[in-house]
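FAQ

Q: What does a record look like?
A: Structure on top, sequence underneath. For example:
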């Protein structure tokens, strides 16, 4: 069984499902949505990140780097074409300003990590959420982990982009997951290809199949739509999405508010401006726009959660 890289395990989350939750972030995603609020999770390989705000300019990292890959003349500090990922700099940094992104943890390591918070799950109706990146890139690992966690009486929630082999999902993952959150981003195939790096055909097909799988199962399937200014929040995209969801029998939807923090996070892993409208995406979606987006679904009888 392949062991994936884990980006982080975040405890005490109130934003990733019911109750107090521990969130396990997997590294690697088959999509490449440029607004990804977790850009460190996109690449499946390990990398290093640099946060200038944490750096005390001791220059230890510069002096230990055998490849001369670090320089204050470089706007991103790290020359990734020279870096061999030897991690000598990250080992020596006193503040963690330069740090490795992604570590290999076993199923039992993760289980032990989340079990510490079981009392919080029990008292709050919470549990464990798998997020990313895309956890289903590692079906066997995820199945074993989710199965072991659920055996402890812990609620398991999976957040997915929906791009997976449906048969494998229904056989390996579905039995071990109580709740599935699945993102639907753009109904237009060409827009999906342009902004998410891949066509949407399989994702929409999977959502239709999942709707049938979850109907009457006692488990929850919740579609989520990230509201990205000027891209996914258009009247036409949301109306078409609402009709698609109704057609699939969905009665509830979650609209995810836009967060511009991704632009700063991109810089820490060496990614500069990647979209022509990036400046207009520097602020949160105004409340009036959020309300207008909500009303598109509510008018069609879909409940916003
Ligand atoms: S990981 Fe190694 S090669 Fe890369 S910047 Fe750090 S010390 Fe240099
Ligand atoms: S070792 Fe850490 S704190 Fe010191 S210069 Fe490098 S990144 Fe900054």
């Amino acid at each position: 069984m392949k062991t994936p890289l884990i980006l982080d395990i975040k405890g005490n989350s109130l934003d990733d499902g019911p109750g107090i939750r521990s969130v396990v972030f997997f590294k690697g995603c088959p999509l490449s949505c440029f607004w990804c609020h977790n850009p460190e999770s996109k690449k499946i390989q390990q990398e290093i990140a640099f946060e200038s705000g944490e750096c005390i300019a001791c220059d230890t990292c510069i002096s230990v780097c055998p490849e001369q890959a670090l320089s204050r003349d470089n706007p991103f500090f790290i020359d990734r074409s020279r870096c061999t990922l030897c991690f000598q700099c990250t080992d020596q940094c006193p503040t963690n300003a330069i740090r490795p992104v992604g570590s290999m943890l076993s199923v039992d390591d993760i289980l032990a990590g989340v079990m510490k918070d079981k009392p919080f799950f029990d008292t709050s109706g919470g549990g464990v959420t798998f997020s990313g990146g895309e956890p289903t890139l590692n079906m066997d690992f995820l199945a074993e982990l989710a199965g072991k966690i659920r055996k402890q009486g812990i609620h398991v929630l999976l957040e997915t982009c929906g791009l997976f082999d449906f048969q494998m999902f229904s056989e390996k993952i579905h039995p071990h997951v109580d709740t599935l959150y699945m993102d639907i981003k753009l109904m237009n195939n060409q827009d999906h290809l342009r902004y998410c790096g891949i066509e949407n055909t399989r994702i929409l097909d999977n959502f239709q199949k999942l709707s049938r799988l979850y109907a009457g199962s006692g488990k929850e399937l919740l579609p989520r739509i990230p509201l990205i200014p000027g891209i996914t929040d258009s009247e036409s995209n949301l109306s078409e999405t609402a009709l698609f969801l109704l057609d699939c029998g969905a009665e509830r939807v979650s609209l995810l508010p836009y967060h511009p923090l991704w632009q700063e996070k991109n810089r820490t892993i060496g990614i500069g401006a990647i979209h022509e409208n990036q400046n207009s995406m520097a602020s949160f979606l105004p409340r009036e726009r959020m309300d207008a987006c909500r009303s598109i679904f509510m008018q069609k009888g879909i409940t916003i959660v």
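Q: Is there anything notable about this one?
A: The chain has two domains: 5-44+102-304, 47-101.
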